Amino acid sequence: MNGASAGTGDLALIGILIATLFGLMEQDVGKAAHPPPSQVDSLEALEALKPRVGCPIVVQFGSERCAHCPQTTLRLSQLTADYTFEWVYKDVSADLCEEFQITRLPALVIWSGPEAYSVHEGLRGAQADSIIKDCCWPRKVELDADF
Hints:
Glutaredoxin; 5 helices; four-stranded mixed sheet; 2 domains
């Protein structure tokens, strides 16, 4: 093997790694076999999902009777424009709520995998903002032709 082909292969590998890290490529492995995050109703189904690096699944638990839940929903809705995450809303009556032992609403589970998740309960004010900013990557800035 000559040095030129090894260098080209190295550059291709570096390009793939960079594209993967910045979310430019989709992980197609297992997508067809699993439901989308919005249809996840059990811990086993959540464990089957494979979030991309820097793009966790954010499971929000709330209730129509919860006075603070609409504020968290509004904040998450606004944060989707600036940060990369998949957002799933589940009612407090969902089995997943019991699986994560949620006792105070609103609550968020930041899911990056079975050994990489965090539970945040009783959120108030802008707490959802700081949680998302700490665990999710900012979205790419799209530059127009005039830039």
